[in-house]
Amino acid sequence: MKKLSSALAAVVVLAAPITALAQNRVETPHRMQPNEHALNLPGATTIDAPPAGFDPITASDEELAYHGFPPRPNQATDGKAYASWAEAMQHSKTRVAPKLEQTNIFHGPAQMKKNATPAAVDSNPRLAAQPSNTYYSSNWSGYVATSGATSYGSSSYYYLINDMVVPIAQQRPGACTGGWAYGSEWNGIDGWGSGDVLQAGVEFDAYCSGSTRSAYYSAWYEWYPYGEVRIGGLPVTAGDDMFVEVWHTSATQGYAYIVNYNTNQSTTVGFTAPPGVSLVGNSAEWVVEAPTVGGSLATMVDYTRIPFWDSYAYTEAYTFYDVASSTPVDMEVGTSIVSYPEYLGIEAFTMHFQ
């Protein structure tokens, strides 16, 4: 599935749709190691690039953690997940020092609906053929795995990985909003019946006003109820193949590692939970979302389709989950389903916009 970018055309990228906003962040103490540095937002850190010749494939787990690499799937028991991780590490040739920008974009918990409007399902044969356990949400679409955890512990999700393509961001033909429409693709922990979400991914936004069109792309991380933090320095554009891994080392310390396969660049960020927030770890998800911007649910970008593959999640006890053991979620806005997953296999699916 790599190098799907050749099927996607380039677009012009102009100024960001949302500028940085200050947030009342309280820095949570985090014991920093010698090669770790504070970033320009409280509680956020990064780790220096490893020394020349360092090989993450042969490194120990302790060496990986020290040099800012993400947890490694077990090669003996989870060969496909390990192969995806190993390929991402081999493409991590240049580590980018992240430049952070706070936004007022929020990727919150799933806003669930009881059921879909029947006409919305009947309008598309793929939707009519979806499993009976499909859920419906006004902001999420994708797949969600659940562990049964009710508090942080051995059944909590520990980390999850995924590869995905950055889509062309555009507004629906004939539906120019006179402003920005938004979309995001991400991996995360919590948010399905819990109030926080530890997550990272890519935003893809489209502007349309009269004859003016533009698009904006950025990697980001977030620990809701804090808002999205853009990760500057790591180039992202339509057609790029991305690897994202999200994990935590405690109920209040999270990490994101993002690789751009097309540029062979990566970045690693550590960040603390909002005050009073503790990870539950009851869900792990791979999502395309219509975020909340300025207090309101944003208009969803017309992204056409997004391939997701090598989507795996692990609990603290190393119980393994994939797409086949997860629940599909469709995004329904009003009486129309606008974003939904098409199952392709145990670890792969394609997101569709309609």
UniProtKB/TrEMBL annotation:
Entry superkingdom? Bacteria
Q: Which InterPro entries match?
A: ConA-like_dom_sf, Peptidase_G1, Peptidase_G1_sf
Q: What Gene3D superfamilies does this protein map onto?
A: Peptidase G1
Q: Which residues form the signal peptide?
A: 1-22
Keywords in alphabetical order = Signal
One GO MF term: glutamic-type endopeptidase activity
Protein name (database record): G1 family endopeptidase
Q: Which organism was this protein described from?
A: Occallatibacter riparius
